[in-house]
Every structure is written in structure tokens, then in C-alpha cells.
Amino acid sequence: MVQVLGWMGARCRQTYGGQLAELGLRAVVSGLRRTGNRRHHFEQVVTQFFYTGVEALPLVFFLALILGSATILQSATVMPKFGAGDYFGNVMVVVIVREVGPLFTAFLIAGRTGSALSTYLGNMKVQSEIDALRTLGVDPIRYLVFPAFAATIAALFCLTVIFNLAAIFGGFFVVKVLHAFAANATGLELPFSLYMERILASMSLLDGLIGFAKPLVFGALVSLIASHHGITVGGDIREVPKATTSGVVNSFVAIILADSLFALPFLAKLELL
Amino acid sequence: MSLVVSVRNLRFAYPGQDDLLRGVTFHLQEGRILVICGLSGQGKSTLLRLLIGLEQPSGGLIRLLGQDTASLTEQQFNQVKTQVGFVFQSPALIANKTIWDNVALPLIYHNLGDPEEIQYRVDNALEMLLIKEYQHQYPARLSLGIQKRASVARAMIMRPKLILMDEPTAGLDRISRSVLLALIENIRRINRVAMIIVTHDLSAARELDGEIGVLKDGELLEPMGFDQLKNCQDSFVEFLFRQLEIEAMAVDKPA
């Protein structure tokens, strides 16, 4: 029995998912270890958070404004024509909070931070910098992967919240500015109180929970996939761009797969499962 | 004097290849230098990588500072590594850190001292290797010679009992090479640190005044002094000395 379990464990470790899970586990275990300079480790996480979160903030905010205003514009002008004006709030919650907010932000971070992380770690591997860390008794997983892992999760969570708020509030503001130029467009005269009332009325506890959980899962996936592709580069510099590309593509696929799993509770709610 | 390194019957093969090392045995005492010479592809660098745990041997025993490395957990081995310095053939400095940060990294990571002490120790090491003026610069902006010296500073910052160096003089011009060798000898003399230096440069081995072991066909010939080695009746050793003479003639000859 033990042998069978051992064999299964070894087989799992050889799979892509198994390797990611092992890397994640090692990152968490090494990150939570109480030895060494913990203040320095915290500073590493903060620095990584700055690169991943703070530097991406203007781009996320800008995209959220455009996407939020486009969604409001489309749903507030088109839906009343089909007699579905009352469902405006539901559309905002489903589109922005539940789907587009977490997905767009995760794609952005996978493209921006994920690619940078794979390239950075891949180059370090080729230049023997990771070996150099090992010879100094520095655990590369703790020193390089854990800060990226923790900071990407935290940054993606914060960015998703900011994206949602910017899309809902900023988008409304943009629409109101547009309204000044196209005052006769149906739906654009919607007052802010009614707008918020409809959104809040459409939001369920499940929406909130999944809206919070998605960026955490996406952040873990992006950082682990990028790190995995970076640290598994061999000694050849030509492997680095390949690792970066695979890292980004696999992150996109993993995000979409994970997102589809998050849809299961809603399908169950609709009794489709 | 206590043994710092003890290697017995060490064997190693890269996956799918023949044995590269076929029973290497040697011992190194505190404060001594062992220079390992040999041609490219004989396994000199691999031997150093095995000692520091970057590769796993297929057989044999490695005792580092009295501890059998095969029986250590990763964390225990990391603790042993705080007493062993390693200098790579390429400087392998962290590219996005300044020279000061690179040298201070192991002290900060392992929490070895308060900020003032770390500052003092790093400044000392940089001064000893004559690179204090480059402390705020990034490695990519500096010459190979300066980067190698920074790499040596990083290896000695934890006051190790053993420093392993892989081709420390490779790629350096004659002046940088002589400066680096003099600094290495200085470090050994002042800190009484044992060193294993891998090189294909026999003249560097002579300047360092340590015992020389020649790695040939996966085995290490009994380490001996330079003059003893010169009288050795081995065809491979004779070949190495002929190379040294040719190099010396090339240097003496005016351009």
C-alpha cells in the first residue's frame, strides 16, 4: 500500500500540475520558516509587491475606466430596448465583478509580471546566479520564488479590487461626461443612487466570495507557473525566451481553466449540474 | 591541524554518460591550498560542484568540515555552506544588486550580525580586495577582473574555513591575474582559510604555493609540491609542463 502510494506520489511529481504543486508547497513552507533574517524576507516581498502591484496600477486603472464605461454604456443603452433594463445591475456584477475584473487583471499580470519573472529567473539560472545562491546557503525558493508568490497573490488581489471599483465608479463618471455630449441617449440619464442600488441589489454573497477568491488563485497560478518555467531553464541562453513564452501561454490557459471551475457553483445554482 | 575536506573514492557520471570521476580521493587540512590542475573536460569543475552539493555523487564519501554531506538535510547542509565560500568561473554576481549588496547578501540572509557589523565586515572585505570604490556599481558595468574580486569578497565574507575556487584567473589579463592571485594568497595567510583551487593554469598553481593534484582520466594523482610534480614521470604531467614552457616563451617573446 505504502509502495503504491509512493509510486503514485512519484508519478504525480512528474506531471506539470504536480511540479507546480510541489513548488508552491516548498515556497510556502520555506517562506513561513522562522529562521534567518525575517525582516529582510518581508522587504523582499514588499519590493516584489511594488513591481507587481504599484507599477501596474496606472495601466489597470486606465483599462478599468475604459472597460467599465463601455460596459455601462452598452448595457444602459441597449438593454432597455429589449425590455431588460431592470437587469442592468446583474450585467455589471456578472461582467465586471465576477468575470472581467479578475480575468483582465490576471491576464495583465501574467503578461507583465509573469513574463518578467520567467526571464529574470531564467537568466539567473543561465548565469549561474541561482547556483551561486545555493553555494551561499541561500535557498533560492525562499529567496526568489516565495517573495514572487506572496507578492503576486497580494498584488493581484489589490489590483482586482481597484479594477472593480474603478470600472464601477470611474466608468459611471466617464458615462456621465459622455452624457453631457449625448444627452438624448436612452439610459445615460441614470442617477448614481439608482445605479448603485441596482448593482448592490444584484450582488450575492457568492459573487463577493468568488470575486475575492479568484485573484488569490490566479495570483498563485501566475507566480508559480512563471517561476517554474524560469528555474527549470537549462544552461542555454536560448531557452530563456522559450521559457518566457511557455510561462505566459500556460498562465493564460491555467487562468481560463481555473475561471471555468469557478463557474461551477453558479451552474449548480441554476441546477444545470 | 584538523581536516577540512576529506574525499574518499568519489565517483560521478552525468546522466547517460561514462564515469567522469572514477574514485577521487584526497584530504585537505586547515589553512592549506590544494590546486587541482587538468585539461578541459576532466571533471575539475564538477569535483567542486560535488563538494558544495550542486551535483550528487554516484558513489563515495565527502566529509566537509567533519560532516558527511550525504547524511545532511538541506537545511543542515545550508548551515555548513555558511562556512564554505565558492567562487565560480563566471563571477555569478546577482545582476540587479550592487557590488556592496552582493557581498553583504549572505550576511543579511543568514542574519549574521547587526547592520553596523555587516557594514564593517563588507567594507573590510571590499577594501581588502581593492574594490571599495566600486561598491555602489552594478556588476554589468564593471570589468571581469573587478567582478571576480567581488566574487571572492562574497565568498570570504562569512569568514569561511574553506574556499572553493573554479578557474579564478580564467579570462583575466596578466596584471589582473597577478593582482587576484596575490589577493587570494593574502586572504589565505591572514584568515588561515583552506582553499581548493581548480585551474588549467599551471603557472597560477606555482604562484599560489600549494600542493598540486592533477586530475587525469577521472582520477586525482597524489597531490605534491610544484618541484616534486616537475620531476614526476607521468606523460600527462610532462605535457602540462611543456604547455607551461610554451606559455612562458610566448610571454617573454617581444610582440
Short description, anyone?
The complex is a heterodimer of chains A (about 270) and B (about 260). By secondary structure, chain A is mainly alpha-helical.
| Helix fraction of chain B by DSSP (H/I, runs of at least 4) | 40-55%
Q: How confident is the prediction overall: mean pLDDT of chain B?
A: 88
Q: Give the strand content of chain A.
A: under 5%
Overall mean pLDDT of chain A = 87
Proportion of residues in helical segments of chain A: over 70%
Quaternary organization: heterodimer
Largest sheet of chain B: 6 strands, mixed
The run of helices and strands of chain B is: EEEHEEHEHHHEHEHEEHH
Give the N-to-C terminal Cα separation of chain A. Answer: 35 Å
If strands are numbered along the chain, what order do they take across the biggest sheet of chain B? 6-7-8-3-9-10
Proportion of β residues of chain B?
A: 15-25%
What is the strand tally of chain A? 0
Structural class of chain B: alpha/beta
Q: What is the alpha-carbon Rg of chain B in Å?
A: 18 Å
**Total number of helical segments of chain A?**
11
**What count of helical segments of chain B does DSSP give?**
9
Low-pLDDT stretches of chain B are none
Distance between the termini of chain B: 48 Å
Order of helices and strands of chain A: HHHHHHHHHHH
Query: Which two chains touch over the largest interface?
Result: A-B, 19 and 29 residues
Task: Record the SSE blueprint.
The complex is a heterodimer of chains A (273) and B (255).
Chain A: H1 2-14, H2 16-32, H3 38-54, H4 57-78, H5 88-126, H6 129-135, H7 140-181, H8 192-202, H9 205-231, H10 239-262, H11 264-269
Helix pairs in contact in A: 1-2, 2-7, 2-9, 3-7, 4-5, 4-7, 5-7, 5-8, 5-9, 5-10, 7-9, 9-10
Chain B: E1 3-12, E2 21-29, E3 33-37, H1 44-52, E4 59-64, E5 67-68, H2 74-81, E6 84-87, H3 99-109, H4 115-128, H5 144-156, E7 162-166, H6 174-191, E8 194-199, H7 202-208, E9 211-216, E10 219-220, H8 226-230, H9 235-252
Parallel strand pairs in B: 3-8, 3-9, 6-7, 7-8
Antiparallel strand pairs in B: 1-2, 1-4, 4-5, 9-10
